[in-house]
Design goal:
Layout lengths: L2 E5 L3 H12 L3 E6 L2 H7 L5 E4 L5 H6 L7 E4 L5 H14 L4 E4 L3 H9 L4 E3 L1 H14 L3 E6 L4 E7 L9 H4 L1 H4 L2 E13 L5 E9 L12 E7 H25 L1
Parallel strand pairs: 1-2, 1-4, 2-3, 4-5, 5-6
Antiparallel strand pairs: 7-8, 8-11, 9-10, 9-11
C-alpha cells in the first residue's frame, strides 16, 4: 500500500488527505495546530500534532519512510523552506509543495522539490479555459506542456470511427474516453437517461453528435483542436441561420 505524509492541514492539505484515503493510500497527517490534527483523526489513523521543523519529530513520525511528502504550508515561506531543507537532509526524494509566489516556487525547485503547486494560479487557469469555450466541460493540466480536456464531439468527427479519424497522426492528440447517453430504467421503473463512459475505446467505436470525448495531448495541439472545433461549429450555426 502506498504511504504518504501531508504536512499542513489547511484546506489544501486536508483535501489531498481525503483524496489519498479515497484512493486507498495510507497517510500520515501532520500539523502544529492541535485542532486540525484532531479533525484529521476522523479520516486517518496516524495524525500527529508536531512542529514540522523538528527533525527528530519528523524521523520519529516515520516521514523518511513514505513514498512522498506533500507540504501544504504555502503562507509561511520560512517554515516551508526550512521543512524542505530538513526533509532533503533526511533523504526524502519526492516532495510536493504548495507555494504562494514565483520566488517561493523557485527557491523550493532549487532545493530539489519535485513539483510546486500554486493552487490559486492552477484553479484560475482551469476556470479561464472553461470560460473561453462553451464546448469544454473539464480541463486539467497534466504537466507543464500537456493537458487533458473533456469536450463535445466536433461536428466533423460525428459519424466517424476512431480508426477513420486517426487523431494521433492527424491532430497529435489521443482520445482516451467517450461519454455517451444511454436510456435505461431506474429502480422505480422510470425511464431515465444515464451517462456512461467508454474508457480506452477501440478503433471501431463511432462518435455520435451527443457524445463527449476526453482528449489528451500537448497544450498547443489540444488548444488547436478545440479552437478549430469551435470555429467549425460557429460556421455551421451561421449556415443554418442563413438557410432558414
Amino acid at each position: 500500500m502506498a504511504k504518504f505524509a501531508v504536512i499542513g492541514l489547511g484546506n489544501f492539505g486536508y483535501t489531498i488527505i481525503e483524496t489519498l484515503i479515497q484512493k486507498g493510500a495510507e497517510v500520515i497527517a501532520i500539523d502544529i495546530d492541535e485542532k486540525k490534527v484532531e479533525e484529521a483523526k476522523t479520516i486517518v489513523t496516524d495524525a500527529i500534532h508536531m512542529d514540522c521543523t523538528d527533525e527528530n519529530a519528523l524521523h520519529n513520525a516515520g516521514v523518511d519512510n513514505v513514498d512522498a511528502v506533500v507540504i501544504g504550508i504555502g503562507g509561511n515561506k520560512e517554515v516551508s523552506i526550512l521543512t524542505v531543507g530538513i526533509l532533503r537532509k533526511m533523504g526524502v526524494a519526492k516532495i510536493y509543495a504548495k507555494v504562494d509566489s514565483k520566488l517561493h516556487a523557485r527557491i523550493l525547485k532549487i532545493m530539489g522539490v519535485k513539483r510546486t503547486i500554486f493552487p490559486e494560479q492552477y484553479v484560475g487557469r482551469e476556470i479561464a479555459n472553461l470560460l473561453v469555450s462553451q464546448h469544454i466541460f473539464n480541463y486539467m493540466e497534466i504537466s507543464k506542456d500537456h493537458t487533458m480536456v473533456e469536450i463535445s464531439v466536433p461536428t466533423y468527427f460525428v459519424g466517424k470511427s476512431l480508426k477513420e479519424l486517426d487523431v494521433r497522426n492527424q491532430y497529435h492528440i489521443s482520445i482516451i474516453a467517450i461519454k455517451y447517453k444511454k436510456a435505461t430504467v431506474d429502480e422505480d421503473g422510470e425511464n431515465v437517461v444515464m451517462e456512461e463512459t467508454n474508457v480506452l475505446p477501440s478503433a471501431d467505436d463511432v462518435l455520435q453528435k451527443s457524445d463527449k470525448i476526453l482528449i489528451v495531448g500537448k497544450k498547443s495541439d489540444v488548444n488547436q483542436l478545440v479552437d478549430t472545433a469551435h470555429e467549425v461549429n460557429e460556421q455551421a450555426i451561421e449556415q443554418n441561420i442563413k438557410s432558414n
